[in-house]
Structure to design on (266 residues):
């Protein structure tokens, strides 16, 4: 499967104006040999060309690291690093951010996919409005890559309170690292991306949504995010132990999250 089938390729509008700023694509990876090639292909297919892809392999036991390295051997914009020991997605994501050199940081999970115009549309959206932090709508694909009849829309504007209730898709996020810095997420095994976005939005004040489907989240039965019961525990941990919210507010937010998951599948 080639991602270019998902949407019509558009020319880079930014190329005709001011020079494109470097975008660092952050990709933690662990045991995703069946999918990571498609994810990398979706970065290679971007109409926005001034990017680097920083892949940090978390000691995969399958062919993930080998596949990533094969791509890096063919394109100097791709950098691959392997952790000394299995440490979790948060550590791998933080390491990738540290190794990056871009003006912007964009995030792509190693089994998710981008449309070819994703970076071009989103960076123009941010630069034309002077936004520091943004997200987009996204669709979903199954394990085989078939598009599902499901779109997760985004709000036009997020503040901290809204992100507590409705966080955006991880692989839709871009933020201005030149102005906000390279923000490290909490070293927890699950919901570390949620904790990271809460940290970033406290720096940026707001995040802005481009409500266009510019990427796809892959639904996998063996993925960490599929185990909903575990996520409830870690959602509480973020609310109470990282954000230090009052017990009553934690309970209310968790109840709302469970309802949202039950009715929307998010």
């Amino acid at each position: 499967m080639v991602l270019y089938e998902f949407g019509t390729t558009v020319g880079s509008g930014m190329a005709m104006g001011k020079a494109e700023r470097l975008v660092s694509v952050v990709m933690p990876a662990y045991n995703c040999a069946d999918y990571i090639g498609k994810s990398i292909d979706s970065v290679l297919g971007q109409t926005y060309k001034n990017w680097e892809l920083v892949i940090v392999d978390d000691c995969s036991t399958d062919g993930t690291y080998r596949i990533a390295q094969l791509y890096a051997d063919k394109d100097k914009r791709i950098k691959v690093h392997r952790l000394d020991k299995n440490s979790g997605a948060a550590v791998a994501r933080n390491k990738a951010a540290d190794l990056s050199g871009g003006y912007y940081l964009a995030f792509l999970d190693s089994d998710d996919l981008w449309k070819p115009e994703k970076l071009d549309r989103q960076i123009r959206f941010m630069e034309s409005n002077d936004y520091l932090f943004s997200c987009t709508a996204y669709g979903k694909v199954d394990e085989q890559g078939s598009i599902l009849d499901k779109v997760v829309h985004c709000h036009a504007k997020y503040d901290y309170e809204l992100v507590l209730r409705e966080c955006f898709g991880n692989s839709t996020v871009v933020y201005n690292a030149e102005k906000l810095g390279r923000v490290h997420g909490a070293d927890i095994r699950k919901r570390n991306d949620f904790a990271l976005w809460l940290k970033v939005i406290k720096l940026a004040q707001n995040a802005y949504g481009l409500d266009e489907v510019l990427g796809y989240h892959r639904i996998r039965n063996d993925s960490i995010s599929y185990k909903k019961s575990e996520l409830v525990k870690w959602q509480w941990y973020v609310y109470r132990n990282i954000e230090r919210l009052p017990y009553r507010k934690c309970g209310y937010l968790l109840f709302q999250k469970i309802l949202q998951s039950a009715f929307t599948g998010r």
